[in-house]
């Protein structure tokens, strides 16, 4: 997870940014339904900080636009803003925190419904893939 800032923002010149340094800048949060916002909330709570974004968005494109306008720091993976990074409008600065570095994936399925044979086969392939990738 990275802090997404305009290329002239003070954070843009750092290799990493600590969670404790973020509240001094306007922050761009996402709707509570976004997983990335849940991670941000936990990181701030672990640092005993209050996350109070200046802006709250329900679209990544809105958060990116606000960040490009220099109105605050958005949070997402560098992959989401890959095009803007290539054009050098934005900079993705890694957030220095355990949660921001770790990657998590949860594979869930409903116990109430039976899969079709094709869906069952896909499920088994996904389970095998994730089992191999966690063993590596």
Q: Characterize the biggest β-sheet.
A: 4 strands, mixed
Q: How many strand segments?
A: 6
Mean pLDDT score: 86
Name the shape in a single word.
Answer: elongated
Name the structural class.
Answer: alpha/beta
As residue ranges, the low-confidence spans are: none
Side-by-side strand order of the widest sheet: 2-6-1-5
Strand content: 15-25%
The count of helical stretches stands at 5
State the end-to-end distance: 22 Å
* Overall radius of gyration: 18 Å
Helix content range of the residues, please?
25-40%
The sequence of SSEs as H and E is EEEHEHEHEHH
Oligomer: single chain
What is the element layout, followed by pairings?
Layout: E1 2-6, E2 17-18, E3 28-30, H1 35-46, E4 55-57, H2 60-68, E5 74-76, H3 82-86, E6 90-96, H4 98-101, H5 117-135
Parallel strand pairs: 2-6, 3-4
Antiparallel strand pairs: 1-5, 1-6
Compact summary:
The protein has helices at residues 35-46, 60-68, 82-86, 98-101, 117-135, and strands at 2-6, 17-18, 28-30, 55-57, 74-76, 90-96. It is α/β, with parallel strands linked by helices.
């Amino acid at each position: 997870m990275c802090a997404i800032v305009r290329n002239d923002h003070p954070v843009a010149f750092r290799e990493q940014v600590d969670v404790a340094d973020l509240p001094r800048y306007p922050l761009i949060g996402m709707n509570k339904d976004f997983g990335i916002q849940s991670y941000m909330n936990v990181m701030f709570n672990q640092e005993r900080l209050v996350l109070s974004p200046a802006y709250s968005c329900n679209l990544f494109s809105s958060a990116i636009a606000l960040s490009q306008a220099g109105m605050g720091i958005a949070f997402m993976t560098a992959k989401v803003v890959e095009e803007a990074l290539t054009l050098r409008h934005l900079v993705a600065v890694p957030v220095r925190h355990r949660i921001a570095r770790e990657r998590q994936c949860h594979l869930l399925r409903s116990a109430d419904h039976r899969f079709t044979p094709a869906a069952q086969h896909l499920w088994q392939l996904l389970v095998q893939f994730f089992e191999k990738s966690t063993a590596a």
